[in-house]
Amino acid sequence: MEYLSTKRCGVFHEDTLVAYANCAVLNNLLVINTILGHGEHLRYGIMNLLIYFIVRQAIETPNLQYINYLTLRPGGLGLFKKNVGFRAHSCFFKHETC
């Protein structure tokens, strides 16, 4: 039986959303498919806090074994992904519809 859901996480500062992520969960795989942070708050580490929260929640979720943050490319976002601990791996899976 397949399990599919959507998880949404956010970082707030004084009741204002300053960063958020949308994640899809398929069985034991969590995919971070959208992640955004407000430019004026980036220097305070909001994105690292958001990734920390997502990883902590994944660790605490039974049967969730993998996190995918899409592709790792040189520079910008790729550098951020490496800095928070993601490493490049190939992953292939087959999804069959009902």
Describe the structure.
- The chain has a 4-stranded mixed sheet with strand order 1-2-3-4, covered by helices on one side.
- The chain is 23% helix and 34% strand.
- It has 98 residues and is α+β, with helices and mostly antiparallel strands.
- It is built from 2 helices and 4 strands.
* Strand and helix order: EEEHEH
Average pLDDT works out at 80
Q: What share of the residues lie within helices?
A: 10-25%
Principal-axis shape equals globular
Global structural class: alpha+beta
Q: Characterize the biggest β-sheet.
A: 4 strands, mixed
Computed over alpha carbons, the radius of gyration is 14 Å
Report the uncertain regions: none
Query: What order do the strands of the largest sheet run in, or round the barrel if closed?
Result: 1-2-3-4
Please report the number of helical segments.
2
Oligomer: single chain
Q: Give the distance, in angstroms, between the N- and C-terminal Cα atoms.
A: 11 Å
Proportion of residues in β-strands: 25-35%
Annotation, overall tally of beta strands: 4
SSE layout and pairings?
Blueprint: E1 4-13, E2 16-26, E3 29-37, H1 46-60, E4 66-68, H2 76-83
Parallel strand pairs: 3-4
Antiparallel strand pairs: 1-2, 2-3
Briefly, what is this?
The chain has 98 residues and is α+β, with helices and mostly antiparallel strands.
Keywords:
98 residues; 34% strand; 4-stranded mixed beta sheet; single chain; alpha+beta
